[in-house]
Design goal:
about 100 residues; mainly alpha
């Protein structure tokens, strides 16, 4: 398992280098996993789906929730890493809280 302090710098680098990931968690996660696979000596283009799933459930790849949590925290702290959808999500926050009974 990877903690936020470990994944944070990696996520920040991807957000800086690839602005489209600021509003697309699927793309952000895919880029992080692609990097991790290469670092572990796997060719992401040749790895089977079964091989990928096995690595994921064995905890050899960063959990997608950890990646998106790191993205949210970084965008909260660093305005320049926010995407176009950030303000819309923040504006909707109070409605969601009310709907959930907070």
């Amino acid at each position: 398992m990877v903690n936020l302090k470990q994944i944070g710098p990696r996520v920040k680098r991807v957000l800086q280098d690839n602005p489209t990931t600021r509003d697309n968690d699927n793309k952000l996660t895919a880029i992080i996993w692609h990097q991790e696979l290469k670092e572990k000596g796997h060719d992401p283009n040749l790895l089977s789906a079964q091989g990928f799933v096995k690595m994921y459930y064995e905890g050899k790849l960063t959990n997608s929730e950890s990646i998106t949590r790191a993205r949210r925290k970084l965008q909260e702290l660093h305005r320049e890493l926010r995407g176009k959808n950030y303000q819309a999500r923040q504006a909707n926050q109070e409605k969601v809280k009310k709907d959930l009974g907070y």
